[in-house]
Amino acid sequence: MLVRAVAEFFKYKIVSSVIILTCGNEFEQVRLVRELSIHGLRTTATCDPSLLDQELSSLQGVLYFMKPNDTLLDETKLEHFSAWYKWLIIGDEIPDRLHRVRYDADIVLLDPGQGTAQNYNALDSNNTIPYHESLYFSDVYVHGRAGASRHPWAACAPAGFEARHERARIRRRLHLQRYPMRIATPVGHYDESWYDGTFAEYVTDNTQPERDSAIRCGYGGSSLILERLHATEVLTQVEQWGTEVGNRSMFTRLADGTSELSGSILRVQAKRLSKVDYLIPLWPFKVGFTYVSERESNSNMFVMPFTGATWVAFAVITLILAFAQRITAKEPFEKEGAFVAVMATILQQDASAVPEGASGRFTFMVLSVCSTLVYAYYTSAIVSALMSAGGGGPTTLRALADSRYSLASEDYDWIRYHIFDVFKPDWPEIEYLKLKKLQTMTNFYMSTEQGMELVKGGTMAYHAEYNHVYPLMRILSDDQVCKLQYVHTVPHVMTWLATTRRGQFTDILRIGGDWLLETGLAKRMVSRWQVKPPPCRASLLAERVSYGDVAPLIILTVVGFVTSLALLVLERAVAKWQVKKNGEELIG
């Protein structure tokens, strides 16, 4: 029954293989391996805990038999008591070693002496032995302050394995009992010389969204996650953001495990995947140069007011009206000049061939109304397009390097150590920009207020996270706002909250992060700190005329065309009747 219960447990945990951690009788080890293999488990027996050191890509089961004076657990590393290792300990009490292991340890205790038993006759009717019909598993919960405790979890009965208290086990781990959790938060632009308050007050102050909005959003998200998990938040102030030098940055604090959660956001990069784990995507991140350009002339300006479908629709209408004008014409010269008359009317020019018949005149009237409305659509749309014409200027880093604009940048440690103050051989565009424009870095770094003042002058391209400069664009005129152009160094990308790679709290922090996304609080955090760019007022009128806009006009024109044909039929019928009547009168 014990072997079957062990096999059912590891199958429930969906492990790829089982390591039996035990020393002693090798014959018994081989027998146990064979019996577990019969139940479909790949099993290895060893007396060396270093076998657990291999990098795991799937869950690993570990079976341990408690014995007096056994030191195997003490020799096992702490990282082997993590969620990647599913431990089953056969014994009647919690080993002392388990009081000092990781929070995410997945350890179950199975006491063979506990269970529902009955006596049965084995070989001799006078000799009976206990046979356990059911064996009970206890969940071992490890807390950093209280140590390890055991709780009822599952049972293995003749009917099968049943995890009766799985929900209680999960809820127990999602309640950290006010355990202190450190949030490593970069200082950003915070300085006591200009901000009257503590750093904790600064990162929750939403009166200045243009300052360190990504830090405030990231810290707010981490704070809500810890509140959901009933942990105690410890704000750890660090000098830098994502540098890997020393122990003064948020990234290095997460990488070495001295902080559990990031107080800001990080981009997903290949070199970081081996050092940190990413929790949830949170902040839409964009960084680049902003400058005021001159208005750009466009050779397609006269085509732009109408969409392609609209131009095709008008071409079809022109052909239909020309055909209608031709078939309703009475005189030969009217038929010959039908197409020219239609084109002249649509182009608002004088039409020399006015039809004489009723149907032809009605068709001409429909044509005139249609052309007048088309002209009104076109002229209003082209004026709007001219008013909102985008500015011309460089659109790439290489073009910006060859332009007349001088450069400046917001002073952030990640901008210094990831873009401008380091050599980037895999980024030739930025190196070309440095070579052409940044021979000297004097006065290159400046505040956002100073940078936007120079952008207003029209000779400066200022580099910053766009969310920091959007509120400061209020100093620009409406015309300058419409001429703003951007050259990205970091295109739009989602950035993430991060934690220590395979840390003891990684799994529950991810659950807290999923809760943040599912409840919509993450979107609320972003909307609280994200600033929208100022609108170009001229562009509010600049919308191309689509097919849906002119659909009523086209329907009206088609109805007029059909009506003109009906009038043509009626006119010809009346003409024939008059000819017949006149012929009868002449005969009489």
**Structural class of the helix and strand makeup?**
alpha/beta
Task: Output the radius of gyration.
Answer: 40 Å
Give a count of the beta strands, DSSP E runs of length 2 or more.
Answer: 17
Q: Approximately how much beta-strand content do the residues carry?
A: 15-25%
| Biggest sheet layout | 8 strands, mixed
What brief labels describe this structure?
39% helix; alpha/beta; 588 residues; elongated; 17 strands; single chain; Rossmann fold; 8-stranded mixed β-sheet
Overview of the molecule:
This protein is of the alpha/beta class. Among the domains are: 2-173, Response regulator (Rossmann fold), CATH 3.40.50.2300; 309-388 and 546-587, no CATH class. Helix content is 39%, strand content 22%. It contains 20 helices and 17 strands. The chain has helices spanning 2-12, 26-38, 72-75, 166-173, 199-202, 213-228, 250-255, 308-327, 332-336, 338-346, 358-387, 397-401, 413-420, 428-437, 448-456, 466-469, 478-482, 506-518, 521-529, 547-587, and strands spanning 17-21, 43-46, 60-65, 85-90, 106-121, 128-143, 147-157, 160-162, 180-186, 232-238, 261-262, 276-292, 294-295, 391-392, 406-409, 460-465, 484-500. β3, α3 and β4 form a beta-alpha-beta unit.
Give the topology.
Layout: H1 2-12, E1 17-21, H2 26-38, E2 43-46, E3 60-65, H3 72-75, E4 85-90, E5 106-121, E6 128-143, E7 147-157, E8 160-162, H4 166-173, E9 180-186, H5 199-202, H6 213-228, E10 232-238, H7 250-255, E11 261-262, E12 276-292, E13 294-295, H8 308-327, H9 332-336, H10 338-346, H11 358-387, E14 391-392, H12 397-401, E15 406-409, H13 413-420, H14 428-437, H15 448-456, E16 460-465, H16 466-469, H17 478-482, E17 484-500, H18 506-518, H19 521-529, H20 547-587
Parallel strand pairs: 1-2, 1-3, 3-4, 4-5, 9-10, 9-11, 15-16
Antiparallel strand pairs: 5-6, 6-7, 7-8, 12-16, 12-17, 13-14
Helix pairs in contact: 6-18, 6-19, 8-10, 8-11, 8-20, 11-20
Membrane topology: Multi-pass membrane protein
Organism: Lobesia botrana
Keywords: Cell membrane, Glycoprotein, Membrane, Receptor, Transmembrane, Transmembrane helix
